[in-house]
Each structure stands twice: as structure tokens, then as C-alpha cells.
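Notebook, bench 3.
Goal today: get a predicted structure for 7-carboxy-7-deazaguanine synthase from Spirosoma radiotolerans so we can plan the truncation constructs. The sequence was checked against the plasmid map this morning, with no discrepancies at the termini. Length recorded as 194 residues. Pasting the sequence as submitted so the record is complete.
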Amino acid sequence: MEAFYTIQGEGAHTGRAAYFIRLGGCDVGCHWCDVKESWDASVHPKLSIDSLVAGALQYPGRMAVITGGEPLMHDLTDLTASLQAAGFRTNIETSGVCQVVTGSWDWICFSPKKFKKPNPAIYTQADELKVIIYNQSDFAFAESFAPHLRPDCKLFLQTEWSRSNEMLPRIVEYVKDHPQWQISLQTHKYLDIP
């Protein structure tokens, strides 16, 4: 769908320079999704892996974040191999719904959604759990995954942007009471950067 160089605004790598590759295609269908235009893969041009890597190499940062849509709808083996061969660390954000995790990853952000159950195979692979908090019941949803993850998996709660005024104070109190969790903010939106 698009590729761009910016600052990672969320999760464990917040504040780091990153080249984002947003792939088209998603069948999860979150009603609050901020990139619904990514859902239909057929409306976006197909680019070669070489052109994606060449685009990333134009910038000094060496972290590539593959996102979507749902990026694991695609076989990412060749893309990640090419990025790593060019010196990039490969990160992905996925809902974990796909049956297979393809690609070679330095960091996997697992961001489950209520609308479609994840494949439990993602649990042992996740380096980071990031749950979007849209309403109060999402705290229990987040907690339902924590026991299944590796002990070193980082746990993040992030408010859905349009509900920040209401939910962020609740997240703050929740993290104070449950310090195994951290707050993830969409800092790129606060800073007004893409």
C-alpha cells in the first residue's frame, strides 16, 4: 500500500527511526481501524522486493517495520531475507490470525483483535503484546493473552486514538495497579508526523 521513512510511534521501539512497509490486505475488519484503505489488496500496486529494499536503503535507519492491513496474509520469506541481507532489522506488527508466520523476524509485535481469534502459534514467537483499549472489557481481553506468552514478552496497552480522552486515564490507573503492563502511546499522532 505504501512505504515511508519516519519515527516508530508505538510500542517497544517508540522513538526509533524506521522504514515502514505497509502491505495491502486485511480480513480482520476492526471498526476503529485507521487504515481501512489497506483492507483490499487488489487496489494497491504490486512492487518488487528489490524496489522495496532499494526504497528503504535511501535512508540511514536500518529498522524495517512490516505492517498492514494484516501483513502475514502474504509470504514474507523473501522480503525479510532481502531486507536482512541489506542490513535491516525486521520488525512486524500482526494480529496473529494467520496460520503460518512467514519471514525471518528480529521483533514480532502481536496485536490481537477481538474480531478474529489469533492462531496460538504466535504466542511463543511474540516479543511484544500490544492490545488496543477501546472500552473497559479490553483490559480483560488483554489479560487473557498474557499467561500464554514468553516471560520476556513486553506487555503494552494502547488507547484507540479517538477514545484517548476517556480511556487513557483508565489505562494509567490500570498500569499503576498492574505494573507488568506498560503504556504505549501513538506518539507520532501527538507529534503530528506520518
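The chain has one domain: 2-190. Strands lie at 2-7, 17-22, 63-67, 89-94, 107-110, 128-133, 154-159, 181-183.
Flagging this for group meeting.
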